[in-house]
Backbone:
């Protein structure tokens, strides 16, 4: 068997060519040892190690394994639970160009994502991907499908849609309608979802119902932030007379002016109520970042080799592409969004202080956000919000599993749980940039030394080699740019 100590963790070269693929890439060894690693458990506990983590039949086990089928020497590496991305979309195509399934899935895995909550996609296709991922037939994160409910005008219509979603095999429901659901419709559909055992998450549109209504009627979690400051306004937002909600330049421009209108004392009460009612929050800070710094978003260094031509076209400012609203974007818009981020981040800290559960979502495929890279950026922004890296990692792992109702299945490095693990070169507690699949650098004796990068992503005991996945991503991009 492959018992050798494979010297796969190349210390000085961040680039590993495809021919360096370890022979166990994509396989599920019966037994596995991750040796000499530091371990971050995922529940906020401090790191331990260096030590070994043992896996048998896809589960983390406490007892040492004498002669593991695969042993990875992780000297200098940290092991974390795999990341749970609570806001993802499996995208079949954008801008009328197909997105290869492998491109998207490889980027997520190579960035340490072992679970996605899909909140809107081509459902039949996503069902097949979920099934193939569960069976280990494709290199993919675990998939939890939250099917979009879409607009519903009456309680009866909403209940029928919930039943149809249950029937179709979804894991949960994503509530999304451009204007928020009417309170009576919302009450009926959330009651029905509870009855049939479906969890829910909501992108709350602007309308009569705000986050307090969604929470009162029992929504499981809230996406982004819409509906939260709305619940702390005096009346409606101060929209100018010529504002149209259907125009995305208007919509996102004034979204960036909403938080400042929330009354601080009322906002605090809203947050306390959400916490009391047990609603979790998936803020997706990274996907709005272009609004506060457009030049940064448009010039991310990894675009050169990793941006698929479909996304490249879709991201060009154009009102026909959702989220590509940067036409006439001004310094004042960026300043307003920066102020929004400050209040939003403060609200997130307060929410957690009161006992609320925060997760990490991405929403990549929109607004210059690339799959995988987006979730790492999300973690960095949680640190910017004031959370300790141990708390950030808890948001990204254990909390995500809890919101999915899977905390006894995965989300922590703990005996008995599924082996959803990542092996990261360097110490992400010192620098979260270590998690970027393209790595980062360290300052050693006055020199820049390459480090970082997720070396291995292990999902349900299947081992994937990060640099090999990234080589495949670059090959797909190069091929499709030719076409
Ligand atoms: Zn989304």
Residues:
């Amino acid at each position: 068997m492959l018992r050798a100590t494979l010297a796969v963790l190349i210390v000085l070269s961040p680039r590993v060519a495809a021919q360096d693929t370890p022979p166990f890439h994509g396989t599920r060894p019966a037994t596995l040892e991750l040796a000499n690693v530091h371990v971050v458990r995922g529940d906020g506990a401090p790191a331990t190690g260096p030590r070994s983590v043992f896996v048998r039949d896809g589960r983390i086990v406490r007892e040492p394994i004498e002669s593991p089928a695969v042993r990875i020497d992780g000297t200098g590496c940290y092991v974390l639970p795999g990341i749970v991305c609570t806001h993802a979309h499996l995208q079949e195509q954008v801008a009328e160009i197909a997105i290869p399934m492998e491109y998207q899935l490889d980027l997520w895995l190579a960035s340490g994502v072992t679970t996605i909550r899909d909140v809107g996609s081509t459902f039949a296709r996503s069902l097949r991907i979920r099934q193939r991922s569960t069976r280990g037939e494709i290199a993919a994160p675990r998939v939890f499908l939250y099917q979009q409910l879409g607009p519903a005008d009456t309680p009866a219509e909403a209940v029928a849609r919930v039943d149809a979603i249950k029937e179709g095999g979804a894991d949960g429901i994503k509530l999304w309608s451009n204007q928020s659901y009417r309170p009576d419709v919302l009450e009926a559909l959330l009651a029905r979802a509870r009855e049939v055992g479906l969890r829910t998450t909501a992108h709350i549109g602007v309308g009569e119902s705000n986050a307090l209504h969604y929470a009162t009627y029992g929504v499981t979690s809230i996406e982004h932030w819409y509906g939260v400051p709305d619940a702390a306004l005096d009346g409606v937002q101060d929209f100018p007379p010529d504002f149209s909600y259907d125009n995305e330049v208007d919509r996102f421009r004034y979204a960036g002016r909403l938080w400042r209108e929330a009354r601080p004392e009322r906002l605090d009460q809203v947050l306390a109520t959400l916490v009391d009612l047990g609603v979790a929050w998936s803020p997706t800070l990274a996907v709005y970042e272009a609004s506060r710094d457009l030049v940064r978003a448009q010039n991310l260094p990894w675009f050169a080799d990793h941006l698929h031509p479909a996304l490249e076209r879709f991201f060009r400012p154009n009102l026909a592409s959702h989220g590509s609203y940067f036409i006439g974007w001004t310094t004042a818009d960026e300043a307003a969004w920066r102020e929004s981020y400050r209040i939003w981040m403060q609200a997130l800290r307060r929410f957690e202080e009161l006992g609320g559960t925060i997760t990490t979502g991405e929403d990549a495929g929109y607004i210059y956000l690339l799959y995988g890279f987006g979730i790492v950026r999300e973690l960095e922004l949680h640190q910017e919000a004031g959370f300790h890296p141990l708390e950030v990692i808890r948001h990204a792992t254990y909390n995500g599993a809890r919101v999915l109702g899977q905390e006894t299945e995965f989300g922590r490095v703990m005996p008995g749980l599924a082996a959803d693990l990542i092996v990261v070169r360097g110490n992400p507690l010192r620098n979260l940039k270590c998690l970027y699949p393209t790595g980062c650098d360290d300052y050693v004796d006055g020199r820049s030394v390459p480090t970082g990068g997720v070396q291995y992503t292990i999902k349900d005991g299947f081992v994937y080699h990060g640099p090999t996945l990234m080589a495949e991503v670059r090959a797909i991009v190069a091929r499709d740019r030719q076409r």
In short: DSSP finds 16 helices and 20 strands in the chain. Residues 83-403 form a domain with the TIM Barrel fold (CATH 3.20.20.140).
